[in-house]
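Cilia and flagella associated protein 70, Monodon monoceros. Tokens?
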Amino acid sequence: MEQVSSTGRPVQITVTDGYDLKGFKGDAPVTFIRAEFNQVVLGDSAKIVVSPEGTAKYNFTCSFEFNPEGGVTLHDLAHKPVFLTMTEVLPKEKKQKEEKTMILGQAVVDLLPLLEGESSFETMVPLHPLPGSPLEPLRSGIKQCSLEVKVFVAEPLLTVAQISGGNLLKVTLEAAYSVPESFIPMGLLQNFMVGLQVPSAGEKDYPIFFKNGTLKLGGEREPVPRPKKWPIANILAPGANNIPDAFIVGGPYEEEEGELNHPEDREFRNQAECMKKRITWDLESRCYLDPPAVISFQKRIADCRFWPVEITRVPLVTVPKGKSAKFEKTDDEGRLSFHGVAYVNMVPLLYPGVKRIRGAFHVYPYLGSTVYEKTKCLFSLFRDTGHNLIQHNKIGGINSPVPKPVISKNLKEDKTVKEKDMEARPRPGDVQASSIKSQSSDTPLEVEPSLCNNPEGQQYVEAGTYIVLEIELDKALVPKRMPEELARRVKEMIPPRPPLTRRTGGAQKAMSDYHMQIKNISRAILNEYHRMFGNQAVKVGSDLDSETLEEQKCQLNYELNCSGKYFAFKEQLKHAVVKIVREKYLKTTAFESQEELQKFISELYVFLVDQMHVALNQAMPDDVQGTPSTIYTSSEQLRLFAFEAEVNENYEMATVYYEERLVREPQNLEHWLDYGAFCLLTEDNIKAQECFRKALSLNQNHIHSLLLCGVLAVLMENYEQAEIFFEDATCLEPTNVVAWTLLGLYYEIQNNDIRMEMAFHEAFKQLQARVLQAQVTKHRSTSTVEYVEEGGKDDSCLGPWGITSGSSTAAVKVEVPAGLGAPLSILDEFLDESSNLQSESHEPILSVQSQDPTTSQKPSNTFIKEIPSKKEASKCQESSTCLHPTLYSVSQTPATIFMETIRFLMKVNAVQYVHRVLAHELLCPHGGPSCEYYLVLAQTHLLKKDFAKAEEYLQQAAQMDYLNPNVWGVKGHLYFLSGNHAEAKACYERTISFVVDASEMHFIFLRLGQIYLEEKEYEKAKKTYLQVCKRSPSCLTWLGLGIACYKLDELTEAEDALSEANALNNYNAEVWAYLALVCLKAGRQLEAEQAYKYTMKLKLKDESLLAEIHMVQETVGFGNPSF
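Tokens:
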């Protein structure tokens, strides 16, 4: 950490003017200024008389030499200011030999701008008065006295490389709370000290000490904001202790990076920081890190992760004036007591863009072996350099940092000598403890038993002592990509595609022009007809015979030809016809043969006549027969039909429905996401990537599109693009739990443990904040419900992922985990329009499909890698979290950040990615096997048709939550797919009997109705299909209802239901087959033959149903035209 330059350079400090000055005696006091730096007096100014206006021109210049090799270093400039002390020279009294002086005040000049690359700066510094000084303002509002100061160096102290590669470290020690009860303010004066080491580029570390902590009894909370203080003693003016523009502002516990930042720690911290004893410092120490030191600092954090911050108590020694104290080396270590250590996790400083960490850290007994195991630190600042501390622990001396300890190069030998010394004489800092763990610390400490019993260090643990510390850097060690850069990179990969402008020409315009000309010509002909035969038509009325009409037609044609109007009409229509030929038929070149020309003219003539009739019918609607109304299928219905096709493994029909949605609304990105999720189900990753990128091109700020593009990039091993997508998502929506978790999973694939921990930790914080906010909202809503109606139900929930609360009157467990892995888990949310599940969400639900349980999936073996359990457990210590159940619900399923991500991935059919997240969920301390975990596993095995494994996991899920309707719903699907319809029927009936619906009720009703039809329980089948038709009508639901009614000989109801099914999907051969049966039994031959024709055309596959049709046809004697 030494400066490269070997020559000293002077730093000049010039005090030019003073303002609003006052003295003890007279209106024109005589004053002078003394400058001090680094315990050295730089000089005194001349004695200047202050004007009656309170101004004085000092023009006093002093300097000190900056020489990093043997004098003032960059560290001194960083944390030591220049003190300017103003003294008044009092007038001599009679018989007085020497002048008397009185100190008025003291100003502080911070030299930090010199470390920012500046060679000179000017500042107006306040002159802080001493107690009793006339400079003290008598009332508020009076201007404070000040000095104008200029600082100058001939050339910048830092090179360009040092400015760009160096850094400034600021460490702020606020206080130690809940200290042992044995700490009392009476008796022998004690110096409470805290120290830590900062690595440098060389072999020696730079120590930072905080001394002279103030022991307080408690009773009130420390005020915020409060100023930070210089780590220097014997400052004369109280106000000069404060660092300019530096304050301790505090903040919510949940936003800290320390150990005591969980909800369960809030009560303890409130009590400790209000009522219990504490030691306050409020000191800020600075340290300059040159580029090699920054690299060393970064490497040490990556290697050690935790930083030891030591705390101890040393008796204060009073030194008489003019004498120096001498100490025996054998007594040095005996003076240390209550030697403890806090382990500060410095890893967040390696997170991209992070410059500051602040938090509360538990204090543990100092044990050398434990400290080395946790931090790889061999030496103690207080124990191994105790003689230096004692020499500087005197009342009356300036409290400056201790000289660097001389560390032996042969660390092993030095450690051996110290271990022998430990065996000969016990250390007061060692303590016997088997296991130490904070209330909510994510880093439990296993401490080996010590041979000596030291109750002093153990008192920190018993009292729950913790220190509040802040570490801040001027620049982040790891720069973070700016959101603008990420957005630019995304645009480079996926350019935004604005909707295409509608063409003014084209086939549609040509047709509309043709229709318009037809209407104009028809009006002209009608006008001509009325001119010629209007009077005759009025007399005769509507009794015109055909001969009269034919005669009038001939006369009209003759008149049009003679007048030339016929040719005018042809010319008027010619341009529109030419446009149709060019735009509709794309004919722009000459025909090769006469036959081809005649064929095209015939085809064109038929088309033009048909279009003429269309235009005339539009112009004269009274003469047009009413067209039958068509049932318009909405986008949501098409999505439901696609779901049904997926469940039945009819992927061709599902593709038709998805593509129809895209044709209708090509600019709707949700349609593209749905189609992409379907492509993931069918393992068409390339097409899925195209769909997700198309959605992102429509809206480059859409979070779910970014996440899905990132997931596909990982699956296709485009890792650089995946990082861009995930980072951009976290920048656009920093509160998105899934985005941070997916980013952490990406970093795990890249073996970047530090960034993985950062992402998981941020996801944990966001999930915790969201749940706390939901609990507050839920508490308010519950209180309102209870006020209006005692004992009422509260159906609100925590978020969109199915973590719901239940009524106290319900005898079931209220739980709807949307990520349980059952097919179409989001379907009923969409069908029931359960907006209450989204009312309190910070993340909108992605409208995409879940996967089909009947589809075989093959997860990528190259993507899923084994995760060592020990390493995983350590990673999850910091990153995992649990949603704490509220007091207002019967039961709730804990959710971790990984289960949140699993739910999202299962909704979009990213099963290949789910396996990795399941491994995290299993190994997380707050996760592990749960009902939802086993449900997800069961679905993944259903996809692979591994029914035995799926049944095993469902049994485990049922053991954990026997009253969960989703468990029984998925079990019903398992038995249905495996052919055990009796067991499936029992499971489905149990599912629909619950008060709370399962996640996939649509298909539970469909399959239960099918089982009823197979077992000839037609009344139950009718009732079941009626329920599902009310909830979510589709072709299959109406078909089932129609079959049940047909079997019950309710032909009218059957025909109505089948007609509804046919209107929703007229390509279903089974619907036409039952329509044929109904028409045969109703005696309607024409309809029966038409229905049978379409049944055969669509190739009905049910041979038994076809045989039944033939039997009924033979019975009634019609219905088959081929007879």
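Residues 648 and 819 are 21 Å apart (CA to CA).
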